[in-house]
Specification:
The chain is mainly beta and about 450 residues long. It is built from five helices and 20 strands. The strands form five sheets. Strands 3, 8, 9, 12, 13, 14 and 15 form a seven-stranded mixed β-sheet that branches. The protein has a four-stranded antiparallel β-sheet with strand order 2-16-20-19, with no helix packed on it. Strands 4-5-11-10 form a four-stranded antiparallel β-sheet, with no helix packed on it. A hairpin with an 8-residue loop joins strand 6 (about 190-195) and strand 7.
Length: about 450
C-alpha cells in the first residue's frame, strides 16, 4: 500500500496470495510472516471496461443563423406587359397606358388562387437556383430560350439567375473550413428583437422578446432610398421568397414620390429586399480530441446532440431595415461555440478513465486502518495494481495521463458473519455500490 501524504485518497495494490504451505503436517504452525503471506482476498473479480472511454468528443448544437438584408428578384416568368425595355420611353409609356386599362385590370388584379397573382408580387432569393435564366433544352444545338431572365432592365443578366451567392454578405462563410454552402432551399425566418416594457405598479421594467415579422423594403428609385411598411408580406414556407399581399399591385404606392409599384417596375427602378434570418449549412459545434494513450489506439469519438441548447446567431443591425424602429432593441450576436467546446472538454475529461467494477472477498472481518503497512482497504481507496508473488503477475488497473491518472475506487465494505455455519467475511465493493457481476456490469452514464 502506498499512502499518499496529505491526500484523502490512497493508492492500494491488490496482492493475491498463494499458499506455499499446503503440505504442513504434524501440527506445524505458520509464522507471522507466513500468516501475512496468506492474508488477502480469497476470491474476487474485476471487469476492465473500456466501453465508456473516448479519444474525442464532438458536441453539436443548432444550425448557425444569420440575420441579413437580402435583395430579391422577380419570381414569375417574363411577361410582355411588365418586362418592357426601360430605356425605351415609348415602350414604357405604352405599358403605363395599358396598365390603366380594364384589360390589364382583368389580367393582373387577382386573388391568390388566380394564375397571374404572382406577377409583380412574388419575389425570390433563388438560393437553390430553381429560377433559371433559360428553359431546359432537349436539343443541345437549340438556341437558349429565356425563362426568368428578362431581355431588358435590371434582371437581364445571366449571372444574377445563378444560385444566390452569400459570400458578399457573410464574412465567415468558411466556418467549417470548406468552400461554402450547398444550393438548397432556405425558407426565411422572422427577425427577433425585444422591447423594454416601462415599470408599472412598482414592478421593474420587463424585457419582452418580440418577433417583428417580415416586411419588404421597396425602392422606387433604383435602390437610392428605401421604404418599409407599404404592403403586407406573405412568407413562402418552402423557400426564401415572399409575396406582396396586394390584390391590385397598383395600390402599392411610394410615400415619398407617389409612384406606384407598377410604374417603378416598368421604368426599371423598382427594387425589393427583406431583412430575414437564414439558416446556414453549419452547426454550432465543439470538438476536443486527445492523442490515443498507449494500448488504447482506437479513435473512439462520442457525438453529443445539444440542439436547441447551443446557438449561434449573427445579426447585421447596421443594415437591418428595422433597427431604427422606435421601441425595439436588437439583441447582440450570440455565439455558443466556446460553450460547446467546454462541454466537449468536460465530457472527454470524464471519459478518460476505464471503469473496473468488481469485488474482493476476504475470509475474515477486515478492519480498515490506513496505518497498517500491508494491503488494507478503506472506502475511497484507489486500486492501483493487481499483483501476485507467483509468476510475478502485475496488472496495472490505472488509466489516464499525468496527474489525472487514477484507478478504480473502493465504493463500499460489506461485513457478513454467522454462527451456523460459522462464517466471518468481508466483501470489498469496487466502483459499483452493488456489484452485479461481469455479465451485466453497467455502462458509464453521461452526466
Amino acid at each position: 500500500m502506498a499512502l499518499l501524504w496529505g491526500s484523502l485518497t490512497r493508492g492500494v495494490d491488490v496482492r493475491l496470495p498463494h499458499d506455499r504451505h499446503t503440505g504442513l503436517r504434524n501440527g506445524a504452525r505458520l509464522t507471522e510472516v507466513e500468516l501475512l503471506e496468506r492474508s488477502g482476498p480469497t476470491s474476487g473479480e474485476f471487469m476492465l471496461d473500456d466501453r465508456g472511454r473516448r479519444t474525442g468528443v464532438r458536441v453539436i448544437g443548432d444550425p448557425v443563423l444569420y440575420e441579413l438584408t437580402l435583395p430579391l428578384r422577380p419570381g414569375w416568368v417574363s411577361d410582355e406587359h411588365w418586362d418592357v425595355d426601360p430605356d425605351d420611353p415609348m415602350a414604357v409609356a405604352a405599358a403605363k397606358q395599358y396598365a390603366a386599362s380594364a384589360e390589364w385590370e382583368a389580367a393582373y388584379v387577382a386573388l391568390p388562387q388566380q394564375p397571374n397573382y404572382t406577377v409583380g408580387r412574388y419575389w425570390v432569393l433563388n438560393e437553390d437556383g430553381a429560377f433559371a435564366a433559360y428553359k431546359p433544352k432537349t436539343d443541345p444545338e437549340a438556341p437558349d430560350e429565356p425563362l426568368y431572365k428578362r431581355e431588358h432592365g435590371p434582371w437581364a443578366d445571366d449571372f444574377g439567375w445563378l444560385p444566390f451567392d452569400f459570400t458578399p454578405y457573410i464574412h465567415d462563410l468558411t466556418y467549417r473550413g470548406d468552400s461554402g454552402w450547398s444550393t438548397r432551399r432556405r425558407p426565411f425566418r422572422e427577425p427577433e428583437a425585444y422591447h423594454i416594457e416601462a415599470p408599472a405598479g412598482g414592478q421593474p421594467a420587463r424585457v419582452v422578446p418580440r418577433r417583428v415579422g417580415l416586411e419588404a423594403s421597396l425602392s422606387f428609385d433604383g435602390g437610392a432610398t428605401w421604404e418599409v411598411g407599404l404592403v403586407n408580406v406573405e412568407i413562402d414556407p418552402d423557400r426564401a421568397a415572399v409575396t406582396l399581399a396586394a390584390t391590385d399591385p397598383r395600390t402599392i404606392v411610394s410615400a415619398r414620390t407617389g409612384r406606384t409599384l407598377v410604374e417603378a417596375y416598368l421604368e426599371g427602378k423598382l427594387r425589393v429586399r427583406v431583412t430575414a434570418v437564414i439558416e446556414s449549412d453549419d452547426r454550432v459545434f465543439g470538438v476536443v480530441r486527445q492523442e490515443p494513450w498507449p494500448f488504447f489506439p482506437l479513435p473512439w469519438v462520442e457525438q453529443v446532440d445539444r440542439s436547441a441548447q447551443l446557438k449561434h446567431v449573427v445579426r447585421n443591425a447596421p443594415r437591418n431595415d428595422y433597427w431604427h424602429v422606435w421601441g425595439l432593441t436588437w439583441p447582440d450576436n450570440r455565439d455558443d461555440r466556446d460553450e460547446a467546446e467546454r462541454l466537449a472538454r468536460r465530457i472527454l475529461d470524464e471519459a478518460h478513465v476505464r471503469r473496473a467494477p468488481g469485488m474482493l472477498n476476504f475470509p475474515y472481518l477486515l478492519r480498515p486502518d490506513p496505518t497498517v503497512p500491508w494491503e488494507n482497504y478503506a472506502v475511497g481507496d484507489e486500486l492501483s495494481r493487481l499483483r501476485t508473488d507467483l509468476f510475478r503477475t502485475d496488472i496495472d488497473l490505472r488509466t489516464g495521463n499525468g496527474p489525472e491518472r487514477r484507478g478504480p475506487q473502493v465504493s463500499g465494505l460489506v461485513y457478513r458473519w454467522a454462527r451456523e455455519p460459522a462464517e466471518m467475511t468481508t466483501q470489498v465493493l469496487v466502483e459499483d455500490d452493488v456489484y452485479a457481476g461481469v455479465e451485466v456490469a453497467g455502462d458509464r452514464e453521461e452526466q
